[in-house]
Amino acid sequence: MIPISWYLVLSAALFSIGVGAFLIKRNIISIFMSIELMLNAVNLAFVAFAHHWHQVSGQIFVFFVMVVAAAEAAVGLAIIIAVFRSRETLNVDQINLMKL
Amino acid sequence: MTAVSPALRILPEILLTLTGVLVMVTEPLLSAKTSRKPLGIFALLGTLAAIAASAWQLHLPAGTAFFNTIQTDAFSVFFHLLIGGILLVTLLVSLNYFEGHSTYVGEFYALLLFSAVGMMLMTSAIELLMVFLGLEISSISTYILAGYRKRSAVSAEASIKYFLLGSFATAFFLYGVALCFGATGSTNIHSIATGVASGSSPLLLALALGMMLIGLGFKVSAAPFHVWTPDVYEGAPAPVVGFMSTAPKAAAFAVLLRITYTGFGTMSHIWIPLLWIMAVASMTIGNLGALTQRNVKRMLAYSSIAHAGYLLVAFTAFSADGLAAACFYTAAYAAMNVGAFAIISYLSGYDERRVHLQDYAGLAKRHPLASAAMAIFLLSLIGIPFTAGFFGKFYVFTTAMHSGLWILVTIGLLNSGLAAFYYLRFLSQLYMQPYDAAQDISEAPAQPAFVLGIAILVAAVLVLGIIPNRVLRLAQAGAATYFPCSGTNAAEVHTQPNLLR
Questions:
Q1: Which structural domain range is residue A77 located in?
Q2: What is the model's pLDDT at position B440?
Q3: Which of the four, B148, B246, B268, B382, has the lowest number of CB atoms within 10 Å?
Q4: Is A54 part of any domain?
Q5: Residue A39 domain-assigned (yes or no)
Q6: How far is CA B324 from CA B266, B299, B489, in A?
Q7: What pTM did the predictor assign?
Q8: What is the ipTM of this complex?
């Protein structure tokens, strides 16, 4: 039996990799993928905790997260296409019409 | 007491969803050249019905529905009415905005409606799953709305920035929810409150709270999670900015209230210092940032960060009055900010012709009425007496003083003084500068719907500033659902509006 802490460490590691990639990556698609990685880290944590508490509600939460992530991907990719059409690049450093 | 049908508890949401779906279904049936205005008017009717349904909910006994995920009480009704009102005026002022520029305006109305549905669900949710769903329904719709000037590169850029940072924030919020579930074994706010009070696994709970604060901090654009705000507000269409700088913030603040006051009420020693820091940072960064801006939309974006800071001051008070003050301030802020962006949307039009401060020089001569309305909104944003902004700030800072937050109140008042400078600079551009006839742009005359929308907003700003009793009483009734035993405090506050007159 694998203790729950292992899952949580893996989940935290995935989430941190996601955050790090979000900050480092320069391609919008890669940034988008790092957000998906963060969401999957959340899902892993939910499933581990649901097992720990012997409650299905955590697993049900995961289904909702997956559905919402799919909806978000649909809109996100559409926005990415809109950006590519107007700028012909997906590098975030060049999407800088507005500066602080 | 007879049981209330669960469907009645989400009646405003049902009405708005039906209207939105009907608009969506009708849109492709119309030929490309037909005006989409009838769809907008239909959306307006649906919104009016939803507002009436929310007001009617006040007569229902407070209670939960759908397996303890939804709770209707005075608090949720207050925010339902507020979001419904914001939606109504946004529809009114944007009825002509896209006329002749975009062929898919029907979807615009539907997205506004769906976005409002999500926000309304957030304010009545007492289950974090429902909060998450509401948050995403509203966010995904607003991501699209931000990019609605399709051929504009700036608009697409605003949309992608909003989308990436918004999803990033949502992931943080979700991780917080997961940790919360791990610590208490539930995602229901009341069960979480029991778990928090029992004092087990405090470290995990503190981490969960911190993560959720980061996520919601992004949504309300509180510093240090504010970086997206100026860019998104600059690029998005002006009527949309008016909507998304007020309604989602009101909803996120409602969630923040439910989570901190109810869920983590017994851990206030942890979140009060965090909110204190966020309040000071938001006020200071917002006002200092706005000082340096020459673009009016960016200036108002920084000002909205500052106003999020004033709201957080009310949170930090952690009392029934603080809660009522926060509710009241969201309403006051909504009236003046939607108004300011509506006037900008009219004066600069779909093509955003007037974006810089100097473009507004002497406009009071050419547009006396629009400038007068703008002046009222700006004075209210400063916090001049007899406007909503004044009473909102007054109430927020007095409740903070009652809770002994002297340093915070001092910083807040200094910031209000600082803020007056850039609002007055805008005002002096309108009224004191000579009008350059060479830069004359012929605007379409203001449509009746737009005038009606502005009239409602001006009336709201003045009513909330001069006779705030009714709204205040509703806000206090909402606050009483959190602090049932604070009768003395509520009675004390009831006399305050009278002191003003």
A1: 4-87
A2: 65
A3: B268
A4: yes
A5: yes
A6: 20, 28, 11
A7: 0.93
A8: 0.96
